[in-house]
Design a protein that fits this description.
221 residues, alpha+beta, Jelly Rolls, 2 domains, 8-stranded antiparallel beta sheet, 4-stranded antiparallel beta sheet
């Protein structure tokens, strides 16, 4: 269980979803249901890809080809060829689910809200950002911070039903090296009120698919 003094001192906490959801079987059903859509189906997924632009050898016309960051799956595949051809650095490459099941997203949101309200002593939040993400082979997220005005925290639930065998995809605290394995039932909580911890997602390898639910509650300031 979370120790609030330690959490606010360190700025992060890794736990088990049994701390958030009272019915684990229901959580399993909901989490497996939400990741059912085929990852090759462009009606269900888009590609969020950010490519570093600090390579002076990149032709000028590529500036348009590597923007915007949110593109279709087919464009994401085209960009992979550009990355390989010019030896570019990929800052992030993630699949984001389009229009996820509203009932399941509401289920996740309701319990996550109750959990963080107790931690931050909030009566209510004015806004929520939530998404279903998937990191596939080769996907990663470079070291970064999650600072957002008005946000208390970022909470990530790990939803994958694949067997994880050191396949990467861990959330890694950059300064300490502490990691949270992306195993179904684990979660990460990052504080944004007193901290803004630098962290990353390690490169996914093999056939493992790193599914997660990302939740960020906000209040108006």
């Amino acid at each position: 269980m979370i120790n609030l003094t330690e959490f606010f001192k360190k700025g992060y906490y890794f736990g088990n979803v049994s701390e958030i959801f009272p019915d684990i079987e229901q959580f399993k059903f909901m989490s497996y249901k939400i990741i059912e859509p085929d990852l090759n189906d462009e009606t269900h997924w888009v590609c969020q890809q950010q490519i570093a632009t600090n390579n002076k050898n990149i032709p000028e016309y590529l500036n348009q080809k590597i923007l915007p960051h949110m593109v279709s799956l087919s464009v994401g595949e085209e960009r992979k060829e550009i990355v390989y051809e010019y030896g570019l650095e990929t800052i992030s490459h993630t699949l984001i689910q389009k229009n996820p099941n509203k009932d399941i997203m509401e289920y996740f949101k309701n319990y996550c809200t109750k959990y963080v309200q107790k931690i931050y002593n909030r009566e209510e939040y004015s806004d929520f950002h939530q998404s279903i993400q998937c990191f596939i082979e080769g996907s990663k997220l470079n070291p970064h911070t999650d600072s957002h005005n008005g946000s208390d925290c970022v909470l990530i639930l790990y939803l994958s039903n694949d067997i994880w065998d050191n396949n990467g995809g861990e959330l890694k605290i950059t300064n300490t090296g502490d990691i949270c394995k992306p195993i179904h039932g684990n979660f990460s909580l990052l504080d944004l009120t007193k901290n803004d911890i630098r962290h990353e997602v390690t490169t996914v390898t093999g056939a493992f698919k790193r599914y997660s639910y990302l939740f960020r509650p906000s209040i108006k300031k």
